[in-house]
Design a protein that fits this description.
This protein has 141 residues and is an alpha+beta fold. It has 4 helices and 5 strands, in the order ββαβαβαβα. It has 2 domains: 46 residues, Rubrerythrin, domain 2, CATH 2.20.28; 69 residues, no CATH class.
């Protein structure tokens, strides 16, 4: 299907019409089957029409999708690094972080685990360095 902007030469009315193919307009015009919607004149011609910008949106979505994949890959790289270089302490993160900080014992590895935003804020207020890293789940596919 193709859409054309048509213009009546008699009354200057413009209207859009759909055709099954690009040569369908020519065929219908030759058969005198195209007429103006306003004045019923058969004196109708194709007019300039702006291009359909749907492909631009698709390209924009592809760019966004590509950026999303890049960010996701970077987060997976961080996750892999953390798992290889830090000790997982799970829900005990807040307790372990305070123990390390106040006991002044230097652990062999840093720690990572889960904590609420409130707990992280409290740790920071106590001078305990913490960071939040978005932890995305591994894809199952």
């Amino acid at each position: 299907m193709i859409k054309y902007l048509l213009r009546c030469k008699d009354c200057s009315q413009e209207f859009e019409s759909w055709f099954s193919a690009s040569d369908e307009y020519d065929r219908l015009s030759r058969l005198k089957l195209l007429n103006c919607q306003s004045c019923e004149s058969l004196n109708v011609e194709k007019s300039l029409m702006s291009p359909n910008l749907l492909n631009t949106k698709k390209k924009e979505n592809l760019r966004k999708n590509k950026k999303y994949k890049e960010v996701r890959q970077k987060l997976n790289d961080y996750k892999k690094f953390v798992k290889q270089n830090f000790e997982y302490v799970g829900e005990n993160f807040t307790y372990k972080a305070r123990s390390i900080h106040y006991d002044k014992k230097k652990p062999k590895k840093g720690i990572y685990g889960t904590a609420s935003l409130k707990d992280v804020k409290e740790l920071r207020e106590e001078g305990i360095e913490t960071d939040i890293i978005p932890w995305i789940e591994d894809e199952k596919n």
